[in-house]
Amino acid sequence: MKLYDVIVAGATGMVGRKMIQVLEERKFPVGKLFPMASSHSVGKRVVFNGKEWTVQELNEENIKNSHAKIALFSAGASVSRHFAPICAKYDITVIDNSSAWRMDPSIPLVVPEVNREKIFSGSKIIANPNCSTIQMVVVLKPLHDKYKIKRVVVSTYQSVTGAGQKGHDQLMKEWNEEEIQEMKFPHQISFNAIPHIDEFLDNGYTKEEMKMINETKKIMGDNSIQVSPTCVRIPTIGGHCESVNIEFEKPFELSDVREILSKAPGVVVQDKPLEKIYPMPIWAHDKDEAFVGRIRRDETVKNGLNLWIVSDNIRKGAATNAVQIAEEFIKGK
């Protein structure tokens, strides 16, 4: 089996650590692992395949000397904007988890179950979408192929882990009534819901909401799909939840919708509400699929459907999707 030397940039962060875990779990054919991060993390150790690997500083010299073929980035947009082109210069294919390249027309934005072919566009940088977008489009794509989506109204209920380690730590400290030196969220998150993720824009939407609008159209390859999102942070850890209302151009039968989703790659149907079976973060936690339930007709609009989607935002919403892109990349067209 051919082995690939792999850089993980941002290796000590929440998503970076999960990337390393997923690489091991999925038995990705790694030759040498090069965990890289800022100078503050140099010398730390990460464990991969039973071996300790020392964290190096993310800089051009270490990138060049690695001779890696693949780099998984989860180090923030500014870092990715600077170092991803440097990796590309040394013939390293970058799969970037930040927002830096997602809406660049020359950069593919990929969810393998939806638009695998874009991996092979020739770009040395491949963008990993926003977590809340990924789990939604995995479910939307097979339905769009059959019924053509006109409009989506989505309300998200997003885990604190979507804000990284600091978001997780704020919730834990609030629960434990510990002093908080630095607030990650603009308000208390425990026992609360905050309809404010990322910055507000002049149109009244947040950056997170605009990501869902723009990324959905790009990934699905259809600018006609209208998306109206409201993104909310809630005090959960296991994954993001989404209430999704879809209006199709064509009529559908609920039995057909369930059958289509049950056969869709990366989707698990949990839809037995009378038996109290429906997707929840505690069930989605540390799993790679998008779970869908509460499948029912919207009786207020023609060809309307309601869904409830839950997925682990650190795994499928970030680390797993990046590793899946790498897996498809080495398989080739």
By DSSP, the count of extended strands is 14
Lateral arrangement of strands in the main beta sheet: 5-2-1-6-7-8
Provide the gyration radius in Å.
Answer: 20 Å
Q: Give the CATH superfamily of the largest domain.
A: Dihydrodipicolinate Reductase, domain 2
* Overall SS class: alpha/beta
DSSP strand content: 15-25%
Give helix % range. Answer: 25-40%
The overall average pLDDT, rounded, is 97
Give the CATH architecture of the largest domain: 2-Layer Sandwich
Total domain modules: 2
Could you give the order of the helices and strands?
EHEEEEHEHEHEHEHHEEHEHEEH
What global shape is seen? globular
Describe this structure as you would to a colleague.
The chain has 333 residues and is of the alpha/beta class. The protein folds into two domains: 4-129 and 318-331, NAD(P)-binding Rossmann-like Domain (Rossmann fold, 3-Layer(aba) Sandwich), CATH 3.40.50.720; 132-313, Dihydrodipicolinate Reductase, domain 2 (2-Layer Sandwich), CATH 3.30.360.10. 33% of the residues lie in helices and 25% in strands. It has a six-stranded parallel beta sheet with strand order 5-2-1-6-7-8, sandwiched between helices. It has a six-stranded mixed beta sheet with strand order 10-9-11-14-13-12. A two-stranded antiparallel ribbon has the order 3-4.
